[in-house]
């Protein structure tokens, strides 16, 4: 799954659904910067949080 965490990919934070859809800005090791539509830029340690990669064009994902 981590190979899908690349800049430009769309994700959701499973523990923070109110943050909305996020787009990955950068990935350095387990540190991923995501720009969420309702929370802004957030630095996430993917060793502690499993982001869910989504298709923003799929019904219910975007």
UniProtKB/TrEMBL annotation:
Pfam families: DUF3553. This is DUF3553 domain-containing protein. It comes from Rhodospirillum centenum (strain ATCC 51521 / SW).
């Amino acid at each position: 799954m981590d190979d899908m965490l690349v800049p430009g990919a769309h994700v959701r934070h499973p523990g923070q659904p109110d943050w909305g859809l996020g787009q990955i800005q950068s990935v350095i090791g387990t540190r991923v910067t995501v720009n969420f539509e309702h929370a802004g830029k957030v630095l996430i340690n993917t060793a502690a949080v499993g982001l869910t990669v989504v298709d923003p064009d799929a019904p219910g994902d975007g």
